[in-house]
Design goal:
It contains 15 helices and 27 strands. It is an alpha/beta fold. The protein folds into three domains: about 160 residues, Rossmann fold (3-Layer(aba) Sandwich); about 220 residues, 3-Layer(aba) Sandwich (Rossmann fold), CATH 3.40.50.12780; about 100 residues, GMP Synthetase, Chain A, domain 3, CATH 3.30.300. The strands form seven sheets. A five-stranded parallel beta sheet has the order 4-3-5-6-7, sandwiched between helices. It has a five-stranded mixed beta sheet with strand order 12-13-14-15-16, with helices on both faces. Strand 5, helix 5 and strand 6 form a beta-alpha-beta unit. Helix 2 crosses helix 3. The two termini are about 40 Å apart.
Length: about 525
């Protein structure tokens, strides 16, 4: 049964929860918590004050605040004022902040007083930003409008509380793994459709759950499951400011939490940290959810065997308001697969170029169509038309399907390494490299080659206290991969740069390649370990 009654406007959901469970904690962080009644009042107050500051329907409000209750209140208040919320990572560097403010044309920026020193020059170059609202953080007190005051007292007018859930409400900037980010326009309808079609049936997410969320809220995955789904269901959540393996283990050890969403890297580090412990269970936790990047079958199996908790992985993208496929708590799971298409979402796998549907088991580009599709890219009609053709969004991801409909993501069309005319999916090589003793993390990309055009090379993070011999690693890969897929070079680094959702930023790794073409199998242990810090 689809709980379509949960697909409602944010003001309506707030009213429902404030009536039915006023004293229940909705969101909590390390500094405090907010009940559903207090959440309804705080968002109404801030929305009315935003309107007093001149925010009109359709204006953009940028939000650059750490994961917190204040983040959630600010986001929901912007929607109640009729504005579009533009989340920006709190860890963004000046060029990224400047681009997002200029591209979105945001009129108000909500941030913290500790960031104002860095933002002064940026704001001079972003003329659309007329007002800055400051969340108090740290010892420094910058002059300006205070978030704490604006949520504490009602504005001169009631919030607009628009009820058209099909209008765009968010501009979510894509990960930008291959270049400059695009602003994806998502509606409340598209987001909450994922709640009722994916999270409720596949994970049995309900009002009884207490969710531990270490996800970055500026990302669509977290915005969907960690903000809007919690509100729609009337559940409770603890919001971590940042992921920390030590802190996650301490919090889960209390036995209070029932569900934890994350990305593969988080679960990998949890598993690594548990190897030195005698305790093998996570009390109270009934399910973990992984999305944002490909999870290897080995990690999934090892995690479940070690902790006795289901680790359900799926495949999602910003342009579809997160999830496209998902594994379920019950039923069959295919090792290495990212599950079945979310109910109501149509998927096809086509041959790039011809557009013909491929046979079961054949690799092709995944295209999707459904109620969760984006409205388009903000102010980018050409890019929108290229991405959505005849109603189908072309993901750019390579996939194959078995006869039962289970999808496996095999790589990225734009990230393919083309070695002498032969296509190599980085994900396939990464799975092989990850199986070698001592490899904690890795990423593969194509490096220029004088004769073959490009060849695969691998960046490797070694496990603490373990040394990986590069020649032995290459020899191992020869036993796991066809000869043309074996990496031609190995570079050792401290960490793999990833986006908040766990996707590898290969373009940053490309900047670290030596200024030379790869001519034959070689290894390089001279890569500065400090060159990339995630």
């Amino acid at each position: 049964m689809m709980h379509t009654e949960l697909i409602a406007s944010v003001p309506e959901l707030l009213r429902r929860q404030a009536r039915s469970r006023p004293d229940k904690v909705a969101y909590r962080d390390a500094q405090g918590s907010v009940t559903y009644a207090a959440l309804a009042a705080a968002t109404a107050n801030l929305a009315g004050n935003l309107q007093q500051l001149g925010i009109a329907e359709g204006d953009r409000v940028a939000l650059m605040v750490p994961n917190s209750v204040a983040w959630v209140v600010s986001c929901l208040a912007a929607l109640r004022a009729g504005a579009l919320c533009v989340p920006i990572s709190y860890d963004s560097v000046p060029p990224e902040i400047s681009y997002r403010l200029l591209d979105s044309g945001a009129r108000v920026l909500i941030t913290t007083d500790e960031r104002m020193g860095q933002l002064e020059q940026i704001l001079k170059e972003a003329p659309s930003v007329e007002r800055v609202i400051l969340v108090s953080r740290g010892a420094r007190a910058a002059a300006g409008l205070r978030y704490e005051e604006l949520v504490a007292k009602p504005g001169p007018t009631a919030p607009r509380d628009p009820d058209n859930i099909d209008d765009a409400s968010f501009i979510i900037y894509t990960s930008g793994t291959t270049g400059r980010a695009k602003g994806v326009l998502l509606s409340v309808h598209s987001m909450l459709w994922v709640t009722v079609a994916c999270w409720i049936p596949s994970v049995n997410l309900s009002e009884a759950d207490y969710v531990l969320s270490p996800l970055p809220l500026f990302h669509s995955y977290a915005l969907n499951i960690s903000v809007l789904s919690i509100l729609a269901l009337g559940a409770s959540e603890y919001i971590m400011e940042k992921y920390s393996t030590q802190e996650v283990r301490a919090l889960l050890g209390k036995g209070e939490f029932t569900v934890m969403p994350g990305v593969p890297t988080m679960f990998h580090y949890l598993l690594e940290a548990a190897k030195s412990d005698s305790e093998g269970r996570l009390p109270g936790l009934r399910a973990c959810i992984s999305a944002g990047a490909i999870m290897t079958a080995g990690l999934n199996t090892s995690f479940e065997e070690r902790f006795g908790v289901k680790l359900l992985d799926g495949y999602g993208i910003t342009e579809t308001a997160t999830m496209v496929t998902m594994n379920w708590l019950g039923g069959t799971r295919v090792p290495g697969s990212c599950g079945l298409p979310v109910p109501g979402l149509a998927t096809r796998i086509i041959e790039p170029g011809s557009g013909r549907d491929v046979e079961f088991g054949e690799e092709g580009e995944l295209i999707v169509r459904g109620p969760n599709l984006m409205k388009g890219y903000y102010n980018k009609p050409a890019e929108t038309a290229n991405a959505i053709r005849n109603g189908w969004y072309h993901t750019g991801d390579l996939a194959r399907s078995d006869k039962n409909g289970y999808l496996t993501i095999t790589g990225r069309l734009k990230e393919l390494v083309i070695r002498g005319g032969q296509n190599i999916a980085p994900a396939e090589v990464e799975i092989a490299v990850s199986g070698f003793a001592g490899v904690m993390d890795c990423a593969v990309l194509g490096a220029p080659h004088d004769k073959l055009g490009e060849v695969p090379v691998v960046f490797v993070v070694q496990r603490p206290g373990e040394a990986v011999d590069a020649q032995s690693l290459i020899a191992y890969c020869r036993t796991q991969l066809s000869a043309y897929k074996v990496p031609e070079a190995v570079y050792f680094v401290d960490s793999i740069p990833r986006t908040g959702s766990g996707k590898t930023m290969r373009y940053k790794l490309r900047e670290l390649l030596p200024d030379r073409s790869v001519r034959s199998a070689q290894v390089d242990k001279g890569m500065p370990a400090s060159a990339i810090k995630a």
